[in-house]
Amino acid sequence: MQERIKHQNSGAEFMTPEHCYIIELSTSPDDPDVSIARARVAPGATTSLHRLRGTTERYCIISGRGRMDVGNIPTCTVSAGDVVIIPPLCRQRITNTGKDDLIFLAICTPPFTQDNYEDMEPQSAPPRKPAAHPSQ
Asked: What's the rounded mean pLDDT across residues 80-89?
């Protein structure tokens, strides 16, 4: 692995069928142990209920306010500074309950792959596509 700085490309944001917007911040072979994406959920939107096989995910809430459903714990409110730890195969979804966008980092170990995504709401499609430029 080489030291480097990856700059966010806000023009790379894409809408997912999961009802959120994603910017892949770091998903590349030069950093094989983790993937980091910035997620944005619009006011009133709820992401699709899903889980990841073989991947632990962490939501690091940057701004906004939401309601988190994760595993078997009671639904709870999340806001800036909170971290939600989501083990493999743990069902999850988040709702933006605020008036502004809910923004968080989704940090996955090992890195997110489409094959590990399991939609628990059959009417929606997988949420992420491969990064357009993995070397960014």
From this structure: 98
